[in-house]
Write a structure and sequence with these properties.
Shape: globular
Oligomer: single chain
């Protein structure tokens, strides 16, 4: 009996000794707390800050490649919005124009497309300017160059260049010439670049799949840089002749540092075929 009592006494003293050692270790400065101990709260990650240019405007400069999220897989290759959402918004005139189109992409795609930008028949005039917002839909990058009072959008497709003045106010001139790419004005709203365009010629589709437009087209693009490597373009199309309500969608692009603008040649298909038939295409 006495032997058992001695054994239990020794074991109890050993347990107390280990407990005191562990407490002393945890109390030592510079030592990490043991498993199960309370940990200090983690510092919150710093919020993303849009870089600024030397003159204080948000810096969107760089080469940006279209890259839509998986949620836009249905239409990402040819539009900025699902046609399922647009067709119900069409006026009678708009729907008539839409059903007459022969695009290469989208719900109405055909093999013998008569798209004025890139037809497939070889018998139609091609290489016409895309217009806006269609220029964002083509799978080609855009280079953004900034200067005080200006933003330049250098689209690789057809080498289309858009010069956006950001220091001319928000009121368009009342008498503007109708243009393929419209007459844009730009301004900054915090970290958002707003591009407001009117004065279109009514000859373009607003995407690659035949969504029509008229000479009443008014396009607003709101460009933001939500992340270091991401650019987002929120698009609003207001064309009361073609649609009963504004058409709203978006495009996203990814930064590609070091990419150059590559050569992209597009010639009038009819002219090219005429030269080919005459043996003078070289």
């Amino acid at each position: 009996m006495r032997t058992h009592f001695m054994k239990w006494s020794i074991a109890f003293v050993a347990v107390l000794s280990c407990a005191f050692v562990l407490l002393a270790q945890n109390a030592q400065p510079g030592r990490a707390p043991q498993t199960g101990a309370a940990r200090p709260a983690a510092k919150p990650a710093a919020a993303w800050q849009v870089p600024k240019t030397a003159w204080g405007e948000p810096d969107f400069s760089g080469m940006w490649e279209p890259k839509m999220p998986p949620s836009a897989r249905e239409y990402g290759g040819y539009s900025f919005i699902s046609h399922k959402d647009v067709v119900p918004l069409m006026t009678a005139w708009g729907k008539e124009q839409y059903l007459q189109t022969k695009p290469s992409w989208g719900p109405l795609a055909v093999e013998d497309s008569t798209d004025m930008v890139n037809p497939t028949t070889g018998k139609e005039i091609g290489c016409a300017p895309t217009g806006v917002p269609r220029i964002w839909v083509h799978p080609f990058p855009v280079k953004i160059v900034q200067a005080p009072g200006n933003v330049y959008l250098l689209h690789e497709f057809n080498h289309s260049t858009r010069e956006i003045y950001t220091n001319k106010g928000k009121q368009h001139d009342k008498d503007v010439d109708p243009l393929w790419m419209g007459n844009p004005l730009g301004w900054w709203e915090g970290n958002t670049l707003v591009i407001d365009s009117v004065g279109f010629n009514g000859k373009t589709w607003i995407d690659r799949a035949g969504l029509p437009s008229s000479d009443q087209l008014h396009v607003i693009e709101r460009i933001t840089r939500p992340e270091q490597n991401k650019l987002r373009v929120d698009i609003t199309v207001d064309d009361p002749k073609a649609y009963t309500k504004p058409v709203v969608g978006f495009r996203e692009l990814e930064l590609e540092p070091g990419w150059p603008i590559t050569e992209m040649i597009c010639e009038d298909n009819i002219t090219f075929n005429d030269l080919k038939n005459q043996g003078r295409e070289q």
